[in-house]
Amino acid sequence: MKIFGKAESKRSKTAAFVIAFFCILLLIAMGWTISRSIAKGIIILDELFVEVVALFVILKSAVAQYTYLLTEDKLVIVEKIFFYTTKMEIPYNMIDGVYAHKTEFISKFRLRYKYRKCSTVDNRPIWALIYSIVNGKKIKNGRVLLKADPAFLKLLTNLYRIESVRHRLMLCCIPTQDAMP
User: Which end of the chain has a smaller Cβ tally under 10 Å, C or N?
Assistant: First the structure.
């Protein structure tokens, strides 16, 4: 597998301080909830559950490390969080575009799958990669949010455009049995 480009998530010190501040606040809130539980003689599960889930979500999004790889025929996103690693692969011929992400209340088109593959402590702008998923005769749209350098995004745009043109040429130029004498 030949790699044409590679980008990794970066860490901003100010964002790390903000995340650490919120984690400390959540730990203080958990301590307060536990002390109230002891005073009442009953465990306050609902508050404790919300605080634990909030702490988990904040830590998961802050600790995650992402590596974006551009190979010959697909974009590979490797996500490392604590003790496990996941890999997501998107073929270039399925990519519809890469756009600057704007948060919208109502999207212009339906997205079936939405993934956030970027760290919250990375201070670069967020980009949305829109891609298609073919499942039989149905085509579903998906979105991946990522943060990378402009040079990497330009290389990605060039690679998926080249692959898209190559794929369309193959579809229109392959002779069928009906066209042959």
Answer: C
Where do we find the tokens 């898209």?
A: 164
Contact 23, 29 (CB under 8 A): no
pLDDT attached to residue 170 = 54
Reference 95, options 62, 141, 54; nearest CA is 141
3-class SS string, the chain: CCEEEEEECCCCHHHHHHHHHHHHHHHHHHHHHHHHHHHHCCCCHHHHHHHHHHHHHHHHHHHCEEEEEEECCEEEEEEEECCEEEEEEEEHHHEEEEEECCCCCCCCCCCCEEEECCCCCCCCCCEEEEEEEEECCEEEEEEEEECCCHHHHHHHHHHHHHHHHHHHHHHHHCCCCCCCC
In terms of Cβ atoms closer than 10 Å to its own Cβ (0-12, 13-18, 19+), residue 122 is buried
- pLDDT tens digits for range 70-91: 988 889 999 998 888 999 999 8
Band of residue 177 on the pLDDT scale cut at 50, 70, 90: very low
